[in-house]
Protein backbone atom coordinates (compact mmCIF):
# COMPACT_ATOMS: atom_id res chain seq x y z
CA UNK A 1 0.00 0.00 0.00
CA UNK A 2 1.29 3.47 -0.82
CA UNK A 3 0.65 6.14 1.83
CA UNK A 4 1.22 9.82 1.20
CA UNK A 5 0.81 13.12 3.00
CA UNK A 6 2.17 16.64 2.90
CA UNK A 7 2.58 19.68 5.09
CA UNK A 8 3.07 23.27 4.06
CA UNK A 9 6.21 25.03 5.27
CA UNK A 10 4.08 28.11 5.88
CA UNK A 11 5.11 28.41 9.53
CA UNK A 12 6.32 26.37 12.45
CA UNK A 13 4.67 22.94 12.91
CA UNK A 14 2.27 22.80 15.84
CA UNK A 15 0.48 20.20 17.93
CA UNK A 16 -2.50 20.27 15.53
CA UNK A 17 -0.16 19.15 12.76
CA UNK A 18 1.34 16.56 15.08
CA UNK A 19 -1.90 14.91 16.18
CA UNK A 20 -3.85 15.50 12.96
CA UNK A 21 -1.29 14.32 10.47
CA UNK A 22 2.23 13.59 11.70
CA UNK A 23 1.36 10.97 14.30
CA UNK A 24 -1.12 9.09 12.08
CA UNK A 25 1.43 9.13 9.25
CA UNK A 26 4.12 7.85 11.60
CA UNK A 27 1.88 5.00 12.66
CA UNK A 28 1.15 4.15 9.04
CA UNK A 29 4.81 4.01 8.08
CA UNK A 30 4.78 0.52 9.62
CA UNK A 31 2.09 -0.60 7.18
CA UNK A 32 3.29 0.40 3.78
CA UNK A 33 5.54 2.55 1.68
CA UNK A 34 5.11 6.08 3.02
CA UNK A 35 5.85 9.30 1.17
CA UNK A 36 5.83 12.55 3.12
CA UNK A 37 6.62 15.82 1.48
CA UNK A 38 7.08 19.43 2.43
CA UNK A 39 4.69 21.37 0.22
CA UNK A 40 6.89 24.30 -0.77
CA UNK A 41 5.02 25.00 -4.03
CA UNK A 42 1.84 25.27 -1.99
CA UNK A 43 3.49 27.60 0.51
CA UNK A 44 4.17 30.12 -2.27
CA UNK A 45 0.44 30.88 -2.26
CA UNK A 46 0.66 32.54 1.16
CA UNK A 47 4.29 33.08 2.19
CA UNK A 48 6.46 34.14 -0.71
CA UNK A 49 9.62 35.37 1.12
CA UNK A 50 12.42 33.23 -0.42
CA UNK A 51 14.76 33.31 2.56
CA UNK A 52 12.02 32.43 5.01
CA UNK A 53 10.69 29.68 2.76
CA UNK A 54 14.11 28.01 2.49
CA UNK A 55 14.61 28.19 6.24
CA UNK A 56 11.16 26.82 7.03
CA UNK A 57 11.51 23.85 4.71
CA UNK A 58 14.57 22.80 6.68
CA UNK A 59 12.87 23.42 10.03
CA UNK A 60 9.86 21.32 9.03
CA UNK A 61 12.18 18.52 7.92
CA UNK A 62 13.93 18.66 11.31
CA UNK A 63 10.60 18.58 13.13
CA UNK A 64 9.39 15.58 11.19
CA UNK A 65 12.58 13.61 11.66
CA UNK A 66 12.67 14.49 15.36
CA UNK A 67 9.07 13.31 15.75
CA UNK A 68 9.99 9.84 14.62
CA UNK A 69 10.11 9.55 10.87
CA UNK A 70 12.18 6.55 10.07
CA UNK A 71 14.13 7.48 6.95
CA UNK A 72 14.39 3.80 6.07
CA UNK A 73 10.63 3.41 5.91
CA UNK A 74 9.46 6.87 4.88
CA UNK A 75 10.55 9.02 2.00
CA UNK A 76 10.69 12.59 3.30
CA UNK A 77 11.25 15.08 0.50
CA UNK A 78 10.51 18.53 -0.88
CA UNK A 79 7.49 18.85 -3.14
CA UNK A 80 9.50 20.98 -5.58
CA UNK A 81 12.05 18.19 -6.07
CA UNK A 82 9.36 16.77 -8.32
CA UNK A 83 8.45 19.56 -10.76
CA UNK A 84 6.29 17.08 -12.67
CA UNK A 85 3.51 17.81 -10.16
CA UNK A 86 3.12 21.25 -11.70
CA UNK A 87 2.99 19.67 -15.15
CA UNK A 88 0.29 17.26 -14.00
CA UNK A 89 -1.59 20.16 -12.39
CA UNK A 90 -1.80 21.81 -15.79
CA UNK A 91 -2.98 18.61 -17.42
CA UNK A 92 -5.68 18.20 -14.77
CA UNK A 93 -6.79 21.85 -14.78
CA UNK A 94 -9.14 21.60 -17.78
CA UNK A 95 -11.02 18.80 -16.02
CA UNK A 96 -11.82 20.98 -13.01
CA UNK A 97 -14.92 23.17 -13.14
CA UNK A 98 -14.17 26.53 -11.51
CA UNK A 99 -17.38 26.14 -9.50
CA UNK A 100 -15.86 23.17 -7.71
CA UNK A 101 -12.88 25.27 -6.61
CA UNK A 102 -15.12 28.19 -5.63
CA UNK A 103 -16.83 25.92 -3.14
CA UNK A 104 -13.61 24.91 -1.36
CA UNK A 105 -13.66 26.01 2.29
CA UNK A 106 -9.94 26.50 2.63
CA UNK A 107 -9.96 29.02 -0.22
CA UNK A 108 -12.94 30.87 1.19
CA UNK A 109 -11.42 30.83 4.69
CA UNK A 110 -8.09 32.22 3.51
CA UNK A 111 -9.80 35.02 1.61
CA UNK A 112 -11.99 35.76 4.64
CA UNK A 113 -8.78 36.01 6.70
CA UNK A 114 -7.53 38.73 4.41
CA UNK A 115 -5.30 36.87 1.94
CA UNK A 116 -5.62 38.45 -1.48
CA UNK A 117 -7.50 36.00 -3.70
CA UNK A 118 -4.92 34.88 -6.24
CA UNK A 119 -4.97 32.10 -8.78
CA UNK A 120 -2.49 30.05 -6.74
CA UNK A 121 -4.78 30.03 -3.72
CA UNK A 122 -7.73 29.32 -5.96
CA UNK A 123 -6.26 26.36 -7.80
CA UNK A 124 -4.44 25.03 -4.73
CA UNK A 125 -6.61 21.87 -4.63
CA UNK A 126 -5.62 20.93 -8.19
CA UNK A 127 -1.94 20.97 -7.27
CA UNK A 128 -2.84 18.89 -4.23
CA UNK A 129 -4.69 16.42 -6.45
CA UNK A 130 -1.61 16.18 -8.65
CA UNK A 131 0.55 15.53 -5.55
CA UNK A 132 -1.61 12.61 -4.59
CA UNK A 133 -2.31 11.11 -8.00
CA UNK A 134 1.19 11.34 -9.42
CA UNK A 135 2.44 8.79 -6.85
CA UNK A 136 -0.63 6.56 -7.29
CA UNK A 137 -1.28 7.01 -3.55
CA UNK A 138 -3.85 4.82 -1.89
CA UNK A 139 -4.14 6.29 1.60
CA UNK A 140 -3.76 9.93 2.64
CA UNK A 141 -3.68 10.66 6.41
CA UNK A 142 -4.81 14.25 7.05
CA UNK A 143 -6.76 16.44 9.45
CA UNK A 144 -10.43 17.16 8.78
CA UNK A 145 -9.73 20.50 7.11
CA UNK A 146 -8.32 18.55 4.16
CA UNK A 147 -11.32 16.28 3.69
CA UNK A 148 -12.83 18.41 0.98
CA UNK A 149 -9.53 18.56 -0.88
CA UNK A 150 -9.45 14.79 -0.90
CA UNK A 151 -12.96 14.74 -2.33
CA UNK A 152 -11.87 17.12 -5.06
CA UNK A 153 -8.90 14.83 -5.76
CA UNK A 154 -11.16 11.80 -6.12
CA UNK A 155 -13.47 13.77 -8.35
CA UNK A 156 -10.62 14.73 -10.65
CA UNK A 157 -9.21 11.18 -10.71
CA UNK A 158 -12.61 9.79 -11.60
CA UNK A 159 -13.06 12.28 -14.40
CA UNK A 160 -9.64 11.58 -15.84
CA UNK A 161 -10.14 7.83 -15.64
CA UNK A 162 -13.56 8.09 -17.30
CA UNK A 163 -12.27 10.29 -20.07
CA UNK A 164 -8.94 8.60 -20.83
CA UNK A 165 -9.22 5.13 -19.30
CA UNK A 166 -7.94 3.83 -15.95
CA UNK A 167 -4.84 5.91 -15.17
CA UNK A 168 -4.92 6.83 -11.50
CA UNK A 169 -5.46 4.88 -8.30
CA UNK A 170 -8.47 6.22 -6.39
CA UNK A 171 -7.04 7.58 -3.11
CA UNK A 172 -8.77 7.42 0.27
CA UNK A 173 -8.35 9.86 3.13
CA UNK A 174 -7.71 8.73 6.67
CA UNK A 175 -9.04 11.19 9.23
CA UNK A 176 -8.77 10.23 12.90
CA UNK A 177 -11.91 11.35 14.68
CA UNK A 178 -10.32 12.09 18.03
CA UNK A 179 -7.82 14.52 16.58
CA UNK A 180 -9.61 15.66 13.41
CA UNK A 181 -9.61 19.30 14.52
CA UNK A 182 -7.23 20.35 17.25
CA UNK A 183 -8.34 23.76 18.54
CA UNK A 184 -5.93 26.68 18.66
CA UNK A 185 -5.39 28.91 21.69
CA UNK A 186 -8.30 31.07 20.48
CA UNK A 187 -10.65 28.09 20.04
CA UNK A 188 -10.65 28.14 16.22
CA UNK A 189 -8.85 25.37 14.30
CA UNK A 190 -5.18 25.56 15.19
CA UNK A 191 -3.37 26.74 12.09
CA UNK A 192 -0.03 28.21 11.12
CA UNK A 193 -1.91 30.85 9.19
CA UNK A 194 -4.05 31.97 12.13
CA UNK A 195 -1.38 32.85 14.68
CA UNK A 196 -3.05 30.66 17.30
CA UNK A 197 -0.67 27.75 17.61
CA UNK A 198 1.19 25.87 20.29
CA UNK A 199 4.34 24.73 18.57
CA UNK A 200 5.90 21.30 18.97
CA UNK A 201 9.41 22.60 19.49
CA UNK A 202 10.88 25.77 20.91
CA UNK A 203 12.22 27.34 24.08
CA UNK A 204 10.42 26.47 27.31
CA UNK A 205 9.58 30.05 28.18
CA UNK A 206 8.13 30.91 24.79
CA UNK A 207 6.09 27.71 24.67
CA UNK A 208 4.74 28.22 28.17
CA UNK A 209 3.65 31.67 27.04
CA UNK A 210 1.69 30.14 24.15
CA UNK A 211 -0.09 27.77 26.55
CA UNK A 212 -0.82 30.58 29.01
CA UNK A 213 -2.52 32.55 26.24
CA UNK A 214 -5.27 29.95 25.73
CA UNK A 215 -8.58 31.76 25.71
CA UNK A 216 -11.16 30.78 28.36
CA UNK A 217 -14.32 32.25 29.80
CA UNK A 218 -13.96 34.59 32.75
CA UNK A 219 -14.89 32.29 35.63
CA UNK A 220 -12.93 33.05 38.79
CA UNK A 221 -10.83 30.83 41.04
CA UNK A 222 -13.72 29.63 43.17
CA UNK A 223 -16.38 29.25 40.46
CA UNK A 224 -17.34 25.76 39.25
CA UNK A 225 -16.21 25.38 35.63
CA UNK A 226 -17.43 23.31 32.71
CA UNK A 227 -14.68 20.93 31.52
CA UNK A 228 -16.64 20.00 28.40
CA UNK A 229 -16.58 23.49 26.99
CA UNK A 230 -13.01 24.52 27.60
CA UNK A 231 -10.07 24.80 25.20
CA UNK A 232 -7.55 23.90 27.87
CA UNK A 233 -9.38 20.65 28.53
CA UNK A 234 -9.60 19.80 24.82
CA UNK A 235 -5.86 20.22 24.45
CA UNK A 236 -5.16 18.42 27.74
CA UNK A 237 -7.08 15.42 26.40
CA UNK A 238 -4.50 14.99 23.64
CA UNK A 239 -1.76 14.24 26.14
CA UNK A 240 -3.58 12.80 29.15
CA UNK A 241 -4.75 9.30 30.05
CA UNK A 242 -8.32 8.75 31.23
CA UNK A 243 -7.46 9.01 34.89
CA UNK A 244 -5.67 12.32 34.39
CA UNK A 245 -8.61 13.63 32.36
CA UNK A 246 -11.12 12.64 35.07
CA UNK A 247 -9.00 14.21 37.79
CA UNK A 248 -8.74 17.53 35.98
CA UNK A 249 -12.45 17.52 35.11
CA UNK A 250 -13.20 16.95 38.78
CA UNK A 251 -11.06 19.93 39.78
CA UNK A 252 -12.96 22.05 37.23
CA UNK A 253 -16.26 21.17 38.82
CA UNK A 254 -15.42 21.01 42.50
CA UNK A 255 -12.11 22.45 43.57
CA UNK A 256 -12.20 25.90 45.13
CA UNK A 257 -9.18 28.07 44.45
CA UNK A 258 -8.49 26.24 41.17
CA UNK A 259 -8.39 28.65 38.24
CA UNK A 260 -7.71 28.38 34.53
CA UNK A 261 -4.10 29.41 35.19
CA UNK A 262 -3.62 26.23 37.23
CA UNK A 263 -5.20 24.11 34.50
CA UNK A 264 -2.90 25.70 31.93
CA UNK A 265 0.11 24.89 34.09
CA UNK A 266 -0.98 21.23 34.28
CA UNK A 267 -1.45 21.15 30.52
CA UNK A 268 1.96 22.72 29.99
CA UNK A 269 3.70 20.11 32.13
CA UNK A 270 2.11 17.15 30.33
CA UNK A 271 2.81 18.66 26.94
CA UNK A 272 6.42 19.51 27.82
CA UNK A 273 7.11 15.95 29.01
CA UNK A 274 5.33 14.42 26.03
CA UNK A 275 7.80 15.92 23.56
CA UNK A 276 10.93 15.55 25.74
CA UNK A 277 12.48 12.71 23.78
CA UNK A 278 11.71 14.40 20.47
CA UNK A 279 13.47 17.53 21.68
CA UNK A 280 16.64 15.58 22.31
CA UNK A 281 16.48 14.02 18.88
CA UNK A 282 15.94 17.44 17.34
CA UNK A 283 19.04 18.93 18.95
CA UNK A 284 21.07 16.03 17.59
CA UNK A 285 19.71 16.72 14.12
CA UNK A 286 20.38 20.45 14.44
CA UNK A 287 24.04 19.54 14.73
CA UNK A 288 23.77 17.45 11.62
CA UNK A 289 22.14 19.70 9.05
CA UNK A 290 24.27 18.30 6.21
CA UNK A 291 22.76 14.88 6.81
CA UNK A 292 19.22 16.32 6.67
CA UNK A 293 19.88 18.27 3.49
CA UNK A 294 21.44 15.26 1.80
CA UNK A 295 18.53 13.08 2.85
CA UNK A 296 16.00 15.51 1.35
CA UNK A 297 17.94 15.65 -1.88
CA UNK A 298 18.36 11.89 -2.26
CA UNK A 299 14.73 11.25 -1.38
CA UNK A 300 13.62 13.94 -3.81
CA UNK A 301 15.45 12.08 -6.58
CA UNK A 302 13.65 8.86 -5.65
CA UNK A 303 10.23 10.55 -5.60
CA UNK A 304 11.08 12.09 -8.98
CA UNK A 305 11.53 8.63 -10.45
CA UNK A 306 8.18 7.37 -9.10
CA UNK A 307 6.40 10.44 -10.46
CA UNK A 308 8.12 10.26 -13.82
CA UNK A 309 6.82 6.74 -14.30
CA UNK A 310 3.25 8.05 -14.02
CA UNK A 311 3.99 11.05 -16.22
CA UNK A 312 5.46 9.01 -19.08
CA UNK A 313 2.08 7.29 -19.35
CA UNK A 314 -0.01 10.42 -18.73
CA UNK A 315 1.78 12.43 -21.43
CA UNK A 316 1.02 9.66 -23.92
CA UNK A 317 -2.53 9.24 -22.69
CA UNK A 318 -3.48 12.89 -23.21
CA UNK A 319 -1.69 13.18 -26.55
CA UNK A 320 1.34 15.26 -25.61
CA UNK A 321 3.63 12.49 -26.86
P1 LIG B 1 -1.78 24.71 8.87
O1 LIG B 1 -3.27 24.87 8.78
O2 LIG B 1 -1.28 24.93 10.24
O3 LIG B 1 -1.04 25.54 7.85
P2 LIG B 1 -1.24 22.52 7.13
O4 LIG B 1 -2.29 23.06 6.26
O5 LIG B 1 0.17 22.58 6.63
O6 LIG B 1 -1.40 23.22 8.55
O7 LIG B 1 -1.60 21.04 7.53
C1 LIG B 1 -0.72 19.94 7.57
C2 LIG B 1 -1.49 18.75 8.07
O8 LIG B 1 -1.87 18.94 9.44
C3 LIG B 1 -2.82 18.52 7.33
O9 LIG B 1 -3.06 17.14 7.20
C4 LIG B 1 -3.85 19.14 8.21
O10 LIG B 1 -5.12 18.56 8.07
C5 LIG B 1 -3.28 18.83 9.59
N1 LIG B 1 -3.74 19.85 10.54
C6 LIG B 1 -3.45 21.17 10.51
N2 LIG B 1 -4.04 21.82 11.52
C7 LIG B 1 -4.74 20.88 12.20
C8 LIG B 1 -5.56 20.92 13.36
N3 LIG B 1 -5.77 22.05 14.00
N4 LIG B 1 -6.13 19.78 13.78
C9 LIG B 1 -5.91 18.61 13.12
N5 LIG B 1 -5.13 18.50 12.04
C10 LIG B 1 -4.54 19.62 11.57
N1 LIG C 1 -3.00 21.02 1.60
C1 LIG C 1 -2.35 20.32 2.67
C2 LIG C 1 -2.48 21.18 3.93
O1 LIG C 1 -2.52 22.38 3.86
C3 LIG C 1 -0.90 20.05 2.40
C4 LIG C 1 -0.80 19.17 1.21
C5 LIG C 1 -0.41 19.54 -0.04
C6 LIG C 1 -1.15 17.80 1.15
N2 LIG C 1 -0.45 18.48 -0.87
C7 LIG C 1 -0.91 17.39 -0.18
C8 LIG C 1 -1.63 16.90 2.07
C9 LIG C 1 -1.17 16.08 -0.59
C10 LIG C 1 -1.88 15.58 1.66
C11 LIG C 1 -1.66 15.19 0.34
O2 LIG C 1 -2.52 20.63 4.97
Give a written overview of the molecule:
- This protein has 321 residues and is mainly alpha-helical.
- It folds into 2 domains: 2-181 and 289-318, Rossmann fold; 202-274, Tyrosyl-Transfer RNA Synthetase, CATH 1.10.240.
- 55% of the residues lie in helices and 7% in strands.
- It has 15 helices and 5 strands.
- The strands form 2 sheets. It has a 3-stranded parallel beta sheet. A two-stranded parallel ribbon has the order 4-5.
- Strand 1, helix 1 and strand 2 form a beta-alpha-beta unit.
- Helix 4 (84-92) runs parallel beside helix 15 and helix 11 (231-239) runs parallel beside helix 13 (260-274).
- The model has no long low-confidence stretch (mean pLDDT 95).
- Adenosine-5'-diphosphate binds at residues 7-8, 10, 16-17, 20-21, 142-143, 145-146, 179, 181-182, 189-193.
Attribute tags:
321 residues, mainly alpha, Rossmann fold, Tyrosyl-Transfer RNA Synthetase, two-stranded parallel ribbon, 5 strands, 7% strand, binds adenosine-5'-diphosphate, binds tryptophan
Q: What is the CA-CA span between the terminal residues?
A: 30 Å
Overall shape = globular
Task: Give the CATH superfamily of the largest domain.
Answer: HUPs
Class based on secondary structure composition and strand pairing: mainly alpha
Bound molecules: adenosine-5'-diphosphate, tryptophan
Q: Report the radius of gyration as a whole number of Å.
A: 21 Å
Strand order of the largest sheet: 1-2-3
Average pLDDT: 95
The domain tally reads 2
Q: What percent of the residues sit in helical stretches (DSSP H or I)?
A: 55-70%
Poorly predicted ranges (pLDDT <50, ≥5 residues)? none
Corresponding CATH architecture of the largest domain: 3-Layer(aba) Sandwich
CATH topology of the largest domain: Rossmann fold
| Biggest beta sheet attributes | 3 strands, parallel
How many DSSP H or I helices? 15
Amino acid sequence: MRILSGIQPSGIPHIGNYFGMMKPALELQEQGETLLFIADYHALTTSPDPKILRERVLQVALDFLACGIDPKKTLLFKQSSVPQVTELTWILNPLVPTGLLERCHSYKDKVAKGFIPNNGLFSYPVLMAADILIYQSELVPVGRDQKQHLEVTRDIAQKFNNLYGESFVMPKSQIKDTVAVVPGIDGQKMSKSYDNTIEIFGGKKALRKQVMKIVTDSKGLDDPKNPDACNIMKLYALFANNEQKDTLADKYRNLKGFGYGHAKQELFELYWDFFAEFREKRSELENNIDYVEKLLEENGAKAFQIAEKTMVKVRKTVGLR
